[in-house]
Amino acid sequence: MRKFVSIILALTLSAFAFSAGFQLNEHSSTYAAMGNAVVANARNASAIFYNPAGLTYLPGLNVSFNVSLVYPESHWESLDGSLRTDQKKHLNVLPAVYVTKQLNDRVTVGIGEFSQYGLQTDWPAGWPGTELADRTYIRTFYISPTVAFKLTDNFSIGIQANYVLSDVLITNQINFIDQFADVELSGDGDGWGGSFGFEWDVTDKFHIGGVFRSEVTIHYDGDADFDNVPTPFLPILYDGNIKAKVTLPQTWAIGFSYQYSKNLEIAAEWFHTDWSSYDKLEAVRTNGEVLKSVPKLWDNVDSYRIGIAYKWNDSFTFKFGYIYDENPAPDETVEPTLPDSDRNDYSVGMDWHFSKNLTISSYFMWVHFNDRRVVGNQSGFDGVYQTEAYLLGFGLDYRF
Fold first, then answer.
1. Which one-letter DSSP state was computed for residue 341?
2. What is the rounded CA–CA span in Å between residue 394 and residue 400?
3. Which residues have C-beta within 8 Å of that of residue 155, sequence separation ≥ 6?
4. In angstroms, how far is CA 357 from the centroid of its own chain?
5. Fewest CB atoms less than 10 Å from the CB: which of 41, 262, 276, 299?
6. Alpha-carbon Rg of the chain, whole angstroms?
7. What residues contact 350, with CB distance under 8 A and at least 6 apart?
8. CB-based contacts of 117, cutoff 8 Å, min separation 6
9. Residue 316, CB half-sphere, CA atoms under 13 Å: how many?
10. How far apart are CA 281 and CA 133, in angstroms?
11. Are strands 135-152 and 107-114 parallel, antiparallel or unpaired?
12. Residue ranges per structural domain of the chain
């Protein structure tokens, strides 16, 4: 299983966290351009992610290929401003693929690949917070078979299974005054969950939609590796097998879309994440010894989204979006593995309807994190974190 997970996850480079916690929601260029406010109006194969009920609006065979490029910038400063450390810069890649097939007027099936949760932070070794975190990443890979039913002419539902592969890496250093020991914890695992969505066409112009995605508990098997450990500590800090568990949170969203005119569509969405399931990050040796336990105690949070689509002509549609994202990490547990904060996201994009069957889309998103000032943290590591992220995405949707 470990070799299989590693091969699959190699196809999905770890992405920097830029939504609530380490949640990722930019899995379609045409909908990321609208601030992901599409739970009530998903009309291409990426509805598998946004709302599986939307599949009933797709005739024939549909495929959607999408990729987002994520470039984050982040740094930490001491409270007095005398020290500063920049994170290493990475260009991260987030792909997504979807395929749907209409079986008859009432039933459509599909399958999708996407990565709803991902995280990468990479601080230089030896920086002031090196005992808490140097490099951290979590990667997930969702495989989601889906079936959607049109129950009436104006009401549809979608049901989905989610098989999730994941791997994780955490590195830091231990200061023994005259030398630093290197610590690396790594592992991979998998888990199962499910999703349910609905869409109600109240009128020809007004639509209401909702989606629920369940928790997924990932059980990791991995290794602990120590280097440069002083001899007196070798009986405690030795290499060996470890186990860990992370529960990815349940989410739900509800929203509407309104066709204000022939050319103008307006959409809004309320997205909720139950991050309280992420109460701690703990690694345990196979003999039951707790090797590392970090309390998280995250809060449940909301995201508010607005999207606008303006059809310029038969060839081009321009899109705009705004997202306000609450962060789940309380002041007492926020630390360098994820220096999260509330943020404002601004997006713009364009769909090029190249032909009746082919649409090419692109978007740009700027994610502005509020400065996160940490004082009295339980880890004893205070300071100010500042972060920005820039996303550029492209998509191709084809109907056979």
1. -
2. 20
3. 198, 199, 200, 201
4. 29
5. 262
6. 22
7. 33, 316, 317, 318, 319, 361, 362, 363
8. 22, 23, 24, 138, 140, 166, 248
9. 5
10. 13
11. antiparallel
12. 2-387
Q: Give the 3-state secondary structure of residue 54.
A: helix
Closest to 296 in 3D by CA, of 350, 245, 362: 245
**Which residue do the tokens 């000032």 mark?**
373
Specify which residues 283 forms β-bridges with.
244, 292
CATH top-level class for 2-387? mainly beta
The backbone region for 21, taken as left when phi is positive above 0, alpha when psi lies in -120 to 50, beta otherwise, is left
Q: What is the dihedral of CA 153, 36, 147, 67, to 10 degrees?
A: 140
For 57, the 3-state DSSP assignment is helix
* Cα–Cα dist 366/388, whole Å: 8
pLDDT single digits (tens) 320-350 = 999 999 998 888 888 888 888 999 999 999 9
3-state SS class at 231: helix
Strand partners, 212: 196, 252
C-alpha span between 238 and 12 (Å, rounded): 31
Beta bridge partners of 373: 384
pLDDT mean values, one per 10 residues, the chain (400 residues): 40 40 81 95 93 95 94 91 91 91 96 86 89 86 96 96 92 87 92 96 96 94 92 90 90 96 96 87 86 83 96 96 92 83 95 94 95 87 92 95
Residue-wise pLDDT tens digits, 107-162: 999 999 998 887 788 999 889 999 888 888 888 899 999 999 999 999 999 999 99
User: pTM (2 decimals)?
Assistant: 0.89
Pairing outcome for strands 343-353 and 92-102: unpaired
Give the number of other Cβ atoms within 10 Å of residue 4's Cβ: 11
Distances (CA, A) of 393 to 312, 337, 350: 21, 26, 11
Please give the span between the terminal C-alpha atoms of the chain, in angstroms, as a whole number: 36
CA distance 10 to 139: 10
| Residue 276 in tokens | 């309280």
